[in-house]
Design brief:
20% helix; six-stranded antiparallel β-barrel; alpha+beta; binds arginine; 4 helices; single chain; six-stranded antiparallel barrel
Length: 313
Amino acid sequence: MRRWKGRRTGLLLPSALLLFWAHSSLAWICGQQLSASFQQQNNVSAIVGGNPADILEFPWHVGIMHHGNLLCGGSILSEWWVLSASHCFDQMNDSNLEIIHGRDDFSTKNVKYQKVDKLILHPKFDDWLLDNDIALLLLKSPLNLSINGTPICTSEVSDLRAWKNCWVTGWGVTNISKVNIQSTKLQKVQVDLYRWDWCTIVLPLLTKNMLCAGTQDGGKDACQGDSGGALVCNKKRNIATWYQVGIVSWGMGCGKKNLPGVYTKVSRYLKWISKQTAKEGKPYMYEQDSACPLVLSRWAILFLYFVMFLLSW
Ligand code: ARG
């Protein structure tokens, strides 16, 4: 009996540690909308051809500000990290960058800005081809994710056929004829992902790190000022969770028929992201190309609770 008791206490510590690990692996809840209202409205106004969006539908969307002006869009990866496009930050000093989150109207007063501590551009960013158009922003203090903010999920899945229901958001140009007029209200538009082979026919300068998306009749697209924002989709098998598949990067005009918008293909950079974030001591975990780790950890929690129950009995 005494021996059993000793073993019991010996087991208690590793079990508690495992329990802690299992819990923290579940802590990265991502890609959940805070409200679901993806109805199509008829007052077509903007991103180009989109509609006003509620931040609760896209709680990962942030604005990146430079000296108080909106520079680009971005997305929340975690409380510390924001993802955006490299071309937004041409020779820029990180200390002047700030982000706003939890807002769909950035013109409203009392907006709380969050300072950027470090800007990490992709070392192989090509400012001519816009290849490797990706950047990470490390914040000075962590985001308060309870205030209308949620991280977006990312996944290793690289086959575009796995995705459906794709949307892009931004405060960019809403009317191609008035290029200087940006929207102060966040806009959303639904686009289709196209096969890379087809994209290269109409956009010959496409690299394998890019993907293209648009609509058959044109008229719906991201535009100037939307750069850095997220293109998000659902997995065909799971429509409750949102993943970032692309980053708004470039296009030839906006919303032109047979000229889809071009996005950085996020799945090609997940290893780079996890390396950079780990280097800064604030590691970011993406979802691997199998649901196993999550399923396992959920079962692991149940199992460990059971073990703890037996042990404390
Ligand atoms: N480069 C633009 C920006 O800096 C984004 C252009 C996106 N264009 C498009 N047609 N999808 O805001």
